[in-house]
Amino acid sequence: MIPHITLSTTLMAFVGGFLPAFIWLWFWLKEDEAPEPRHLLFLAFVAGMLEIPVALFFERMLLRELLPFITKATQTKETLIATGSLLLGSALIEECAKFLAVAIFIFWRKEYDEPADAMMYMITAALGFAAFENALYLQRPFAYEIFQGLTIINLRFIGATLLHALSSGLLGYCIAGAFFRGKIRKEIAIFLGLLLSTLLHALFNLSILVTGFAGGNSIEPALAILIAAGVLILFSFERIKHTIH
Questions:
Q1: pLDDT at 78
Q2: Per the domain annotation, does 162 fall within a domain?
Q3: Which residue in 17, 127, 142, 224 has the fewest CB atoms around it within 10 Å?
Q4: pTM exceeds 0.70
Q5: Which of 127, 128, 122, 89 is nearest to 103 (CA)?
Q6: For residues 142 and 13, what is the distance between their CA atoms, to the nearest angstrom?
Q7: Among 160, 158, 156, 191, which Cα is nearest to 174's?
């Protein structure tokens, strides 16, 4: 049966897509001892949303190039390489998109004046990105059945939404660590941060993919990755909040 997307299912998808992002944003704002200006947090959130079409454009280009290799009937070495390349490429595209959102709209402003700001703005932009992504992803589940949509919301709350926040938080931590350094050190920090955030993102996606190939629907491996990353990012945030020149 082809799902029938209506105005009501679209509204439910957007509410359900944005709610997990708002809950995680509230959590991270509670952790911030020196809150950033609300209008800039709003700007970072919206900037993250605006990067969704950019990321989708490049991801579709990547998929178009790799799809002939991925859909081969036999699981050859070439197929596995193409699948891995798609996972890494998609993760890199999304991490770069979220970084650019903050770099274009936030990092040059005078209000960006302490290391912890890098993590907070990166996380906020990531949650804007995740909110819009969720809303698009939930269109079909809600069109099929409300219960199915609600189930997906729960999964994305503890899965993809948190992943986006943590991977961008990891990049933000690398940027924060070079806050008082020179231009070259800052560029190295951005490169290292993008590398680490991409690897975390791709590892999460790979764990979901491998579990699916094995015929299971367990999310424990993916959750274990997020819990470990979450603990690391929380400790990193606490550390960077007390960093001074």
A1: 75
A2: yes
A3: 224
A4: yes
A5: 122
A6: 7
A7: 191
Residue 17's identity, in one-letter code, is: G
> In this structure, is residue 197 part of a structural domain?
yes
Reported as a single tens digit per residue, the pLDDT across 117-172 is: 999 999 999 999 999 999 999 998 888 888 888 888 988 999 999 999 999 999 99
Predicted confidence (pLDDT) at residue 57 exceeds the cutoff of 90: yes
- Within a domain: residue 1? no
Domain interval for residue 145: 7-241
Is residue 40 domain-resident? Answer: yes
Angle, vertex CA 134, rays to CA 226 and CA 100, nearest 5: 75
* 75 vs 167: which has the higher pLDDT: 167
Rounded Cα distance, 117 and 240, in Å: 9
CB 216 within 8 A of CB 88: no
Helix runs in the chain, H state only: 7-31, 38-70, 77-105, 115-137, 139-144, 146-158, 160-177, 183-213, 220-241
Number of domains in the chain: 1
